[in-house]
Specification:
- The protein is mainly α.
- It has 3 helices and no strands.
- Helix 1 crosses helix 3.
- The relative contact order is 0.12.
């Protein structure tokens, strides 16, 4: 019989970062493209580009998702590297460590 293993902390962190960045990328895409039209943005590009609306929305969403995933990984890395070790924690008032 196969035993199920609990997911590691890294896998849980990966799932949280990917899911949260996905949701925020969807919100950022809606807000950005409520203001800017992808077809007009493609005409303003400094290099020749033809882009329909659906492609523009897709590229915009993927760019937002990648940027927000990178942001999430940096935040989790900073939170993890900034944790003090258990020995470095100051004792609470009235508490003695002997």
């Amino acid at each position: 019989m196969e035993q199920s293993r609990a997911p590691s902390k890294q896998m849980i962190r990966l799932g949280v970062v990917v899911w949260v960045s996905f949701l925020w990328a969807a919100i950022a895409t809606m807000l950005f493209f409520a203001t800017f039209d992808p077809e007009e943005l493609s005409q303003l590009a400094t290099f020749p580009m033809t882009l329909d609306r659906t492609s523009g929305y897709s590229i915009g969403f993927l760019l937002f998702w990648v940027l927000l995933m990178l942001n999430g990984w940096i935040v989790t890395w900073l939170l993890q590297s900034g944790k003090p070790s258990g020995d470095a924690l100051p004792a609470a008032e009235g508490e003695r460590h002997e």
